Amino acid sequence: MPAAPGGPRLLLRRLREAMAEPVSPQARLDRIVVIIAANMVAEVCSVYVLRDDSMLELFATEGLNREAVHLTTMRAGEGLVGLIAANAEPLSLSDAQSHPAFSYRPETGEEAYHAFLGVPLLRAGNMLGVLVVQNRTYRVYSEEEIEALQTTAMVLAEMIASGELQALSPGTVNASRRSLCQPGVALADGVGLGHVVLHEPRIVVRNLIAENVEREVARLDTAIAEVRSAIDDLVERGDVAGAGEHREVLETVRMFAHDQGWLRRMREAVLSGLTAEAAVERVQSDNRAKMLRQSDPYLRERLHDLDDLATRLLRQLVGRDAAGPGVMPENAILVARSMGPAALLDYDRSRLRGVVLEEGGPTSHIAIVARALGIPAVGEVANATALVESGDAIIVDGAAGEVQIRPGPEIEAAYAEKARLRARRQEQYRSLRDLPSLTRDGVAVGLQLNAGLLVDLSHLHETGAEGIGLFRTELQFMVAERMPSAAEQQTLYEAVFSAAGGLPVTIRTLDIGGDKILPYMKALEEENPALGWRAIRIGLDRPGLLRMQLRALLKAAGGRPLKIMFPMVATVEEFVRARAIVDREKAHLSRHGHPLPSDCRLGVMVEVPSLLFQMDEIAAEADFLSVGSNDLMQFLFAVDRDNRQVADRFDPLSAAALRAFRLIAERANAAGTPATVCGEIGGRPLEAMALIGLGFRSLSMSPASVGPVKAMVLSLDAGAVGAFLDAELARTRDGASLRPALAAFAEANGVVL
């Protein structure tokens, strides 16, 4: 079996020299295929580049007919070259023409060649093209030759990614730089146009070719040992010891770090002539390309663990710490695999125009913060961090749940106009700010804000909202590195009351547990966290935590009115126990001479369906009720709202949901107990119209929703929509959604939606 003369190291040196020559891109590529063919003892070497239209085009060849260059094309999956592009894996055949995928192209003259070896051209797991060598004989390529060609392919991929081949074929754009529309999940409404800022910038490997292979092997072994030791320390540290998600993730990363196959592939890449860091990047690029093509969600999830491990190893090799917020462009779009709310708050919000995440659903912590800040955000965008480079033009459509990467001029112009129209609508909404929130038939509908950060309070004046209907206290705990002390909590609550300027503020006690695990809190492994140990259940089982928060609230509100709301209450007895704790804290403060709130009202979030069958009792016990529609809907329909497979199976405007809402409104009104809807549906004009028709007279929502909902209220006849809903609910027998009927009612009656 022929061996490559001079080996892969000589090949890489010759490639480096060829790439440095001051010649045209086509001449350079023509020279490169000649060098590869000679070194591989091959009679043919060809480079196919993936175009922006997903076609593979022959860009250069040594051995095939030169007339076929820029003429021969094929789709991914078509022919042997297309098969390599589709699978992102090397293909070695002793008789290519006998393979079922072989596709004969007469213009190339390749019918004379039998042996075939092709490897994908990959960068960060993205397919850029295919590199092929061929021989007339029925030969078998060795593992060393396959490894050498893969190493060569990495160097070529960098040349393609640089964009210098773009001018060689009219209308062709390098596939790694083409415009993309990536679907995701809407997290926060709005449109953001700007340029990519990577939350954790990738380490760009500049030095690909090793000068001293033995030294590179030693560097790789040392870095692996350091990374393994660091991961072992993290696993054994007290803050992640014991069962829980954090430990499981680190255990998985540790398992990969000790995988001998992973280590062997990196060493082979170094021995083929790459630097240690280039070897890490090449192996991870291969892993990424293969795993992105997996249909098994578990295997795709493991990609994140491998990415994490490769990043740790690259940082060890190049001596770079994790990057944090740096200098941001004027219009920054933050792109991240995942991030917490504290990390988002570290960025300059005056320059931030949008957020794109590979992970994170609509109810995630960062989604809540993004909505609070009014920053358009899209989550669950597959492979987002690998598809972009820092500085790329990007558009975030938070309404449609889409991301436009490197958009063309037409798309950019269309979105710029969309942003201008949105700005004009917001200006129109601002003109309604000082108008009373009254329906056409004189029914007052209170519009309040949902909040969780001090920055939210500035929206009270901007929107003309009547107060804070829901202040989520857990956000303060989520963005802190440790449990906030009683004094720190009191300081925050005092600032909230001051910023509200005398407007009413409803404070929800700590709603943690389930999916809201504090960074410093030991995770409790539960089969169904949403139905588990969370919210008031933690407060009643660990009364010290609840007492500390209640004492801070009572002291902060001294001399002012205070409204406290308890989440996840399932029985009247739970509320009675929570009220008793408040009474004890009031008595304690009174004994020690602390001023008490001028008025202290205690309420319940109606979000557990069991309360629907205790409405008269809870309405009699509580001072007010607040409907948490997000949880109420998921519990009512047994649908995990974070599960995309089932999340859209229920509609809050279905007959069953509307009857549940009507029951709450009727029983609360009969008892004279104020009831507010503070879930997301209160901020959508059509749903808000239905809630008013069912009898609710107070809604709480995000700041961006106040304008659209107020415009709807001003154009609505509350009596008419109430009568319409009564008739529709009496008539409906199949439980279908009333959304189409309500939309038709709005259109026929001039309701602004």
Automatic annotation (TrEMBL):
What's an example Gene Ontology biological process for this entry?
A: phosphoenolpyruvate-dependent sugar phosphotransferase system
**Cofactor(s) needed for function:** Mg(2+)
UniProt subcellular location: Cytoplasm
Q: Is-annotated flag, keyword Acetylation?
A: no
The UniProt entry, under Gene3D superfamilies, shows: 3.30.450.40, Phosphoenolpyruvate-binding domains (3.20.20.60), Phosphohistidine domain (3.50.30.10), PtsI, HPr-binding domain (1.10.274.10)
Q: What is its EC number?
A: 2.7.3.9
Q: Tell me the protein family, please.
A: Belongs to the PEP-utilizing enzyme family.
Q: Which domain of life is it from?
A: Bacteria
| Annotated Gene Ontology cellular component terms | cytoplasm
Q: Supply the Pfam families for this chain.
A: GAF, PEP-utilisers_N, PEP-utilizers, PEP-utilizers_C
Catalytically driven reaction(s) = L-histidyl-[protein] + phosphoenolpyruvate = N(pros)-phospho-L-histidyl-[protein] + pyruvate
Q: Does the keyword Transcription apply?
A: no
Molecular function (GO) terms for this protein are: kinase activity; metal ion binding; phosphoenolpyruvate-protein phosphotransferase activity
Enumerate the SMART domains for this protein: GAF
Instruction: List each copy of the GAF domain by range.
Output: 24-170
Q: What is this protein called?
A: phosphoenolpyruvate--protein phosphotransferase
Q: Which UniProt keywords apply?
A: Cytoplasm, Kinase, Magnesium, Metal-binding, Phosphotransferase system, Pyruvate, Sugar transport, Transferase, Transport
Q: Which InterPro entries match?
A: GAF, GAF-like_dom_sf, PEP-util_enz_mobile_dom, PEP-utilizing_PTS_enzyme, PEP_util_C, PEP_util_CS, Phosphohistidine_dom_sf, PTS_EI-like
Q: What is the name of the gene encoding this protein?
A: ptsP
